Amino acid sequence: MLVAVFLLIAIRQVGRFNLKIWQIMLGGALAVLISGQIGPFEALHAISIDVILFLFGMFVVGEALVESGYLRYIAYRFFSHAKNPDQLVLVILFGMGLLSALLMNDTLAIIGTPLVLALATRFRISPVLLLLSLAVAITTGSAMSPMGNPQNLLIAQDSGMAGAFMTFGSYLLIPTLINLLIAFVVLRQFYPKEFSYRLLKHDPVSPCDPGVTLPVRLSLVIILLLALANIVASLLGVPMVVTLPLIALSGAAPVLLLSGQRWTVI
Q1: N or C: which terminal CB in the chain sees fewer CB atoms within 10 Å?
Q2: pTM of the full predicted structure?
Q3: How many other CB atoms sit within 10 Å of the CB of residue 251?
Q4: Domain, as residue range, for 27
Q5: In a shared domain, residues 37 and 60
């Protein structure tokens, strides 16, 4: 069953039907239930509410960044320092990689894909190169934080480790940075023509309406402060101050309570 699901995800097409990943996963889950490989109660028990709440909170923040227009402004400030293709790929690898450790790699995949596609069109760089850079960045970068991806969240919570932020960081920060640098070297080897030296001209982006972006800016501040509080708690040797799902939901709260775009975001 698992092999069939993986093959369908890779192919995405059966005859004339183009399948989406969620449809394939849902079909596989139903097949497992119907065949009796897992019972309905065991299946429900296998769903982690903490992961669902964590994903919901982080996706709310990610979507609010897009809807408010604040993402375009941040992206300009973020990428405007890249003056050539080498610097652009490095910014994607290390910038998106480090951000994925804070905002979760799924969030960065959603908000980063249209960004790098726009950059590829604007600078006439291979979209495959920039999408691979993004994929490697968020997958690798998310490894060094307990809130970088849902798998790390489960490990941090179910293992009972004390000081999850410091434990992950102390073991995985340096290897993650090394791997991101190796990824740059490998991408350069596979796409040498795309790295031919040329200046990249960035079009300025007008500042966003402060009133519209206030909720999402508050969200980012809350997530950062709560994550820092947990890091400090780790350094002091005390238990996690705020659970990871609560960090995500607290970050989403300003958007849900204050934003005029809350229903669009939801």
Answers
A1: N
A2: 0.80
A3: 26
A4: 2-46
A5: no
